[in-house]
UniProtKB/TrEMBL annotation:
Entry-linked Gene3D superfamilies: Farnesyl Diphosphate Synthase
Family: Belongs to the FPP/GGPP synthase family.
The keyword Magnesium appears for this protein: yes
Gene Ontology biological-process entries: carotenoid biosynthetic process
A GO molecular-function annotation: metal ion binding
GO cellular component terms, A-Z: cytoplasm
CDD domains tied to this protein: Trans_IPPS_HT
PANTHER family according to UniProt: FARNESYL DIPHOSPHATE SYNTHASE (PTHR43281)
PROSITE patterns named among the record's database cross-references: POLYPRENYL_SYNTHASE_1, POLYPRENYL_SYNTHASE_2
UniProt xrefs under InterPro entries: Isoprenoid_synthase_dom_sf, Polyprenyl_synt, Polyprenyl_synt_CS, Prenyl_diphosphate_synthase
Record pathway: Isoprenoid biosynthesis; geranylgeranyl diphosphate biosynthesis; geranylgeranyl diphosphate from farnesyl diphosphate and isopentenyl diphosphate: step 1/1; Isoprenoid biosynthesis; farnesyl diphosphate biosynthesis; farnesyl diphosphate from geranyl diphosphate and isopentenyl diphosphate: step 1/1; Isoprenoid biosynthesis; geranyl diphosphate biosynthesis; geranyl diphosphate from dimethylallyl diphosphate and isopentenyl diphosphate: step 1/1
Name of the protein: LOW QUALITY PROTEIN: geranylgeranyl pyrophosphate synthase, chloroplastic-like
Organism: Herrania umbratica
Keywords: Carotenoid biosynthesis, Isoprene biosynthesis, Magnesium, Metal-binding, Transferase
Length: 322
């Protein structure tokens, strides 16, 4: 991709996080803010329809409470953007995108439970168990997880069964005992212990990056991408996934609870291993900038116009404020 002669709708990056050289900027003018708003609304509408308020009312109320509480919708939007990157229409990816948000929300509900992170605030509201009680919160997470797979199987259209099965395999691996659950397990086990940078990377890669990788890879699969496309997107995804968590660690020490919509400074109070703690805030920011640059380089193989959303999403993840 030729990155020369570019124009931008907004500044690329917060100066303190990173600067990226002119020749790495995408070719096309792209209204990223509008893209985020439009895609976010479409995802919210689809999620609202996917979980109607029906009998038994309490469990569906609890599922809807957390699922529709806001959230940046980064995962479904990454899925849609990677589908569009390889020429697929958004409609092909929407059931998968909604499923990813359901799984993400399930993991947040469980993560906030007293037996896990024990948190009171999520997405700017009291956590699920604070409102509905612990037992219902556990069930709401279980039901969202199950519904995610039902939703993919029942609502995906115009994609070969081979591709759907392949995407489901990718997704289920990413969230099980070799993915999300592995990261959470190691995170719990490392509480109160000295953690090396390698161990911290294992936790972050599994707890956060694997699901983000699945979002991008599944979007590429359902969008019709070939093996080379999938592997290139996977490389981008691995950088973005780790970047997301490094930035999360930085935000925990630099923002307030109001700004984050969740309890700020929690990592410090619980003496948790984080990138700022292990390498200092400046080096953590530098690491984030390196990951962002590496991610963007992986997009060079793709059509510039189609790659623009993923280019801007990398920038957004690096510079997000919550
Ligand atoms: C339910 C499959 C399943 C597993 C449960 C509890 C658990 C195992 C894993 C916890 C995983 C976890 C909560 C990781 C943190 C990921 C993270 C950085 C979340 C914040 O994501 P944002 O900033 O939040 O995208 P919003 O609210 O905007 O969606």
């Amino acid at each position: 991709m030729n990155f020369a002669n570019l124009s931008f709708e907004q500044p690329l990056l917060a100066e303190d996080l990173l600067t990226i050289s002119q020749d790495k900027r995408p070719l096309v003018t792209f209204q990223f803010e509008e893209y985020l708003v439009v895609k976010g609304k479409q995802v919210n509408n689809s999620l609202n329809e996917a979980v109607p308020l029906r009998h038994p009312i309490k469990i569906h109320e609890a599922m809807r409470y957390s699922l529709l509480a806001g959230g940046k919708r980064v995962r479904p939007i990454l899925c849609i953007a990677s589908c569009e990157l390889v020429g697929g229409d958004e409609s092909l990816a929407m059931p998968m995108a909604c499923a990813l948000e359901m799984i993400h929300t399930a993991s947040l509900i469980h993560d906030d439970l007293p037996c896990m992170d024990n948190d009171d605030l999520r997405r700017g509201k009291p956590t699920n168990h604070k409102v509905f009680g612990e037992a219902t919160a556990v069930l709401a997470g279980d039901a969202l997880l199950s519904l995610a797979f039902e939703h993919i199987a029942s609502n995906t259209r115009n994609i070969s069964p081979d591709r759907v099965v392949c995407a489901i395999a990718e997704l289920s691996t990413a969230i099980g005992s070799q993915g999300l659950v592995a990261g959470q397990m190691m995170d719990l086990e490392s509480e109160g212990k000295e953690v090396s940078l390698n161990e911290l990377e294992y936790i972050h890669v599994h707890k956060t990056a694997k699901l983000l990788e699945a979002c991008l890879v599944c979007g590429t699969i359902v969008g019709g991408g070939n093996t080379a496309d999938i592997e290139r997107v996977r490389k981008y995804a691995r950088c973005i996934g780790l970047l997301f968590q490094v930035v999360d660690d930085i935000l925990d020490v630099t923002k307030s609870s109001e700004e984050l919509g969740k309890t700020a400074g929690k990592d410090l109070v619980s003496n948790k291993a984080t990138y700022p703690k292990l390498m200092g805030i400046d080096k953590a920011k530098k690491f984030a900038s390196e990951l962002m640059i590496q991610a963007v380089e992986e997009l060079a193989y793709f059509d510039a116009a189609r790659a623009a959303p993923l280019y801007h999403l990398a920038n957004y993840i690096a510079n997000r404020e919550n």
